[in-house]
Give the backbone structure.
Amino acid sequence: MSTNASELSLDAYSDAIRARAASIAQLDSETILTEETRLAPLASDLLLKVKPMVRKGGSGTAIQAYLLAQYEQHGWLPMMMGYKGYPAAVPVSVNNQVSAAPPTDAPFPEAALVKVELVAASAQAHVAQVWTFATPNATPQQRQLLATARSALQSGIAQVRGGERLFKVGEAIQQVLDANRSVAVREFSGYAMGQARIQKPQVLGYRGSDDDDTLMLPGQVLNVYVIAKAGTYGVRYQPPDFWSLLTQDGADGVMLSAMVVVTADGHRLLSRLLD
């Protein structure tokens, strides 16, 4: 099967994806958490194997083809495929594309930040992680933006603890971004995972309302996201399909995430933070 974004057939996956999501929704929380604990580091390892492909002349379709082959070996299904009509399996966004760009054959430029969104499921749980990789000749400004996002993600994760307000995660992320003159993108957020891939509560990657008293609960799995950009505030969706989120000023965007389980005395990181 061709893995070109324009040729990848939703029909080949849609029934299996719907059936898998429905099956996971019937499982108990303990079974799902055990499987998420197994899957998350495997997903991180796959993303790390993509890193050498992020170079001048590489392409999003090549990354998608590689990850789909890996999914097949693991018995995973690409759960982004068909989500709200999404036409691809692995979003690959470049530079001012902040998120959700369908992969293309267009070669990566010499200096680039490439965001790869891994979203899949085994028979017993969903797994998701996004990471941004810099090409070898990325500019100092691009590398600084990526380093800021990584620091912000670590700061947000550090706030995860049972009984604490979820608000603290986004607040900590925002503080790091502000201190490094980066702009939080508010159009997307993190989320809890379990019987559904995306479920409540939202995990904001920016400072939310002081009135939000939502607490983190032991046993919850949170997918914490940092989504940010250089330059000034403002993003837009690209016509005609309005899938890709782009910066209005053409500045670079960055996105990182990690799955974290809440514990009574803190948290346990399920994903790996990649170099």
